[in-house]
Amino acid sequence: MTLTHTETQAVDLAVLATYDEAQMEGEPDFVVELIDIYLNEVPRLFDTLRKSIANKDRSTARRSAHSLRGSSANLGVLQMAAIAGELEHLEDNYSVAAPELLLSLENEFERVKEILNAEHKRRSS
Amino acid sequence: MRILIAEDDPISCRILTANLTKWGHEVVVTRNGRDAWKALHAQGAPSLAILDRVMPDVDGIEICRQLREEKTDSPIHVILLTSLNRREDLLEGLEAGADDYLTKPLDTHELRARLQSAGRILELQESLRQRVRELEEAIAERKIAEEALRNLSLTDQLTGLYNYRGFINLAEHHAKTARRSKNPSLLIYADMDGLKEINDTLGHRAGSTAIAAVGQILRNTFRDCDIIGRLGGDEFAVLVTNLQDLETAKLVERLRRNLFEYNEMSGHKFKIELSIGAVEIDHEQVWSIEDQMARADEVMYREKRKKKGHENAPEEQRTPGTS
Q1: CB A62 within 8 A of CB A88
Q2: Is residue A88 part of a domain?
């Protein structure tokens, strides 16, 4: 990593690993469970975001962006958390910038899904 | 501990639940403010609540505020969940009455440390409540005991003589034993003259001094084995036990002499006068202390009337014990 490298890591797997501490003996893998909830939750939030941005319902959009930021940060999905945060606090040029941010969130999610699915697979095997 | 979680974000909620369960806590999960409020007011409600700052219906700060408006001796310990870098939320939360806060994303070590401190506070509160309960119980018991003691009391505070209850009890007891030994006794009824005037002109403090003085005079006049009581107000009674070698007239005379001496020596503005009624009790016969007291009271009353110059006035109908 160089000093000019500004791109935030997509997923910090070390964050996920901290949840191993909450693993109960004899129970299914806890991190796998969290990944499942996340992969389930994100498309739902995207849905709400798409509709509320189209309807100019900013407060719903802000709340969904807030949830997305929180969930992402919890799982170490750092880049998405950062973009969601930007969307949550977006004020200027909203009608143009909001759809753009949503698009970059959706693109980023494709990358994240791959990483999380790989982790899911690794842990399930 | 029993802990309530109010968090609409499923991941944050699951992480909290998993950790708390792992640490041995019992967790109640709610997904919105309304359910959280209900759960905190149910039977056996959790004593600690972790509330998300942002929730779709009622947010954590509002719940906090409403909880603090309730007057309770077991306040719920509230930990508020806020997003990192939202200092204004934090301050608002603490002002609303939150005890502590945690920032998201959650640091589980911090969570654990906060819970430990919360546990200590709750324990302290519980032991305080327990102590207050114990003290309240102790005070209540003490009050009952004091009341019982007052009812059981046999002495008059002002004079140190027996009170009515004490006098009657002891006199009755004496009556039983005297009946067996067939010894004669003497019952003296003494009523202060003019106590009301002393109270009215010199004040109640002087009145009390006068009453106490009568007690002292009676004690000086009679023996330790005699039963001396203040029946109430300005009425006194003495049961002279075992009259054998004593004469009634001499005893009454001794009492009058002591009274006279007191009035000469005391230097008080008042003079103590007693109307005295003395009756001898023949233990050959069956008698009750009440009957004998009525007899003595009658004799005393006749003397009082004589003093007031009503010697020849017709007898009035009156109840014993009043004057």
Answers
A1: yes
A2: yes
Nearest by CB to residue B104, choosing from A30, A34, A74, is A74
Question: Would you write out chain A's pLDDT as a tens digit for each of its 125 residues?
Answer: 434 444 668 899 998 998 998 888 888 999 999 999 999 999 999 999 999 999 999 999 999 999 999 899 999 999 999 999 999 999 989 999 999 999 999 999 999 999 999 999 999 88
Range of the structural domain that residue A83 is part of: 27-124
Q: Is B92 on the interface with A (CB under 8 A)?
A: no
Q: What is the pLDDT of residues B59-73, one digit of tens each?
A: 899 999 999 998 887
ipTM: 0.86
B9 and chain A in contact, CB less than 8 A: yes
Structural domain boundaries of chain B? 2-131, 164-307
Domain count along chain A:
1
Nearest-Cα residue of chain B relative to residue A36: B11
Between chains, do A41 and B10 touch, taking CB under 8 Å as contact? Answer: yes
Counting as low any pLDDT under 50, the low residues of chain B are 311, 313-317, 321-323
In a domain, A10, yes or no: no
> How far does chain A reach from its first CA to its final CA, in angstroms?
31
- CA geometry: angle at B145 spanning B143 and B147, to 5°? 70
pLDDT tens sequence across B30-60: 999 999 999 999 988 999 999 998 887 888 9
Question: Which residues 36-55 on chain B approach chain A with CB closer than 8 angstroms?
Answer: 54
CATH fold for the domain made of B164-307: Alpha-Beta Plaits (3.30.70)
Q: Does domain B2-131 have CATH number 2.40.30.10?
A: no
In angstroms, the CA B180 to CA B178 distance is 5
Locus of tokens 């009082």:
B304
Alpha helix segments (H runs only) across B41-189: 60-69, 87-95, 108-152, 164-181
Are B31 and B57 a contacting pair, CB within 8 Å?
Answer: no
pLDDT for B85 equals 65
Cβ B8–A73 below 8 Å, yes or no?
A: no
**Which candidate in B14, B16, B52, B103 is best for mutational testing of the A interface (most A CBs within 10 A)?**
B14
